[in-house]
Amino acid sequence: MDLTLLYRGPLASCDYDCPYCPFAKRRDSTEQLRADRAALERFTGWARSSTGDRLSVLFTPWGEGLTRSWYRRALVELSHEPHIDRVAIQTNLSCRTEWLAEADRDKVALWCTYHPRQTPYERFLGKTRRLAATGVRFSVGVVGLPEHLEEARRLRGELPEEVYLWVNAAEGHTYTDEEAATWTALDPLFPFSRHPHRSAGRACRTGATVVSVDGDGTVRRCHFVRDELGNLYDGSFRTALAPRVCPLAVCDCHIGYVHLETLPLYDVFAGGVLERIPTAQARLGMPLSPRARR
């Protein structure tokens, strides 16, 4: 089968403490880090051995994964597997990036978030330039708070033109039309983030071709629906995979609503769904084709 897996293990520690972050962070103990490493290595082993499937993997840790050697190693190893089409991770890019030279740069990708006041601007920009020079696919984004606007504008002006700058609507923040237009000038796709999407009863790829996996191997349709489909390691999840509609009233997170079949985002992000890289046409704000508007 063709299957996309969103993996989130027990790791919850982060080297940043952003006040707007919705994730509850902790300082992981040595024991907790060992447990996370063991869980990730088990998952990586399963993915590498599942040669009868075509897999894509996105790591979505609660904390920052790339400061841990086992996440860097997982991306490198999975990128070289012939049956794995893409392996990506969400990251604040605080880690070193030289290790990416060992990965298959046609398969590995980074979804990077810039957090003003958590890291010097020039340091972050320098890392994006080094990434661009290596040919690694990546996107860069910010949370759309008023205090981030000037640095977001500066970032858009100094990033390579081909690097997509996305803007996430801040959780709990309501945007006037004027404010939304300001952010849309930086990210033409911001309107998709501005409001939660009605999802109840609407077809979604999660639970059929996209699933969420936790550190114990429990498989759910996505990070936001808690019903279990089975377990990854005993194969019990496979019989539960089927087209289904969303049971939630709304979906307000990109890693969820990107999979809604009622939105055109698989066309918008064709070839870059996991790393949040849109097509050149969409990145420039050009109108979608009639097929893409369905």
Name some characteristics of this structure:
294 residues, alpha/beta, two-stranded antiparallel sheet, 9 helices, 28% helix, Radical_SAM_STM4011-like, STM4011 family radical SAM protein
List the topology elements.
Layout: E1 2-8, H1 30-49, E2 54-59, H2 69-79, E3 84-91, E4 108-113, H3 121-134, E5 137-143, H4 149-158, E6 165-168, H5 177-186, H6 190-194, E7 197-198, E8 203-204, E9 210-214, E10 218-222, E11 225-231, E12 244-245, E13 250-251, H7 254-257, H8 265-268, H9 280-283
Parallel strand pairs: 1-2, 1-9, 2-3, 3-4, 4-5, 5-6
Antiparallel strand pairs: 7-13, 8-12, 9-10, 10-11
Task: Write structural notes for this entry.
By secondary structure, the protein is of the alpha/beta class. The protein contains 9 helices and 13 strands. The chain has a 9-stranded mixed beta sheet with strand order 6-5-4-3-2-1-9-10-11. Helix 2 links the parallel strand 2 and strand 3. The longest helix has 20 residues, at 30-49. The protein starts with a strand and ends in an 11-residue tail after the last helix. This is STM4011 family radical SAM protein. InterPro entries: Aldolase_TIM (IPR013785), Radical_SAM_STM4011-like (IPR047771), rSAM_sf (IPR058240).
Instruction: Assign the structural class, choosing from mainly alpha, mainly beta, alpha/beta, alpha+beta, or little secondary structure.
Output: alpha/beta
Rg, Cα atoms, Å: 18 Å
Query: What is the chain-wise order of helices and strands?
Result: EHEHEEHEHEHHEEEEEEEHHH
Record the strand order, biggest sheet. Answer: 6-5-4-3-2-1-9-10-11
Overall geometry: globular
Mean pLDDT: 93
Number of helices: 9
Catalogue the unreliable spans. Answer: 289-294
Based on DSSP secondary structure assignment, what is the total number of beta strands?
Answer: 13
Helix content: 25-40%
- Through-space gap between termini: 25 Å
Query: What's the main sheet like?
Result: 9 strands, mixed
Report the portion of residues in β strands: 15-25%
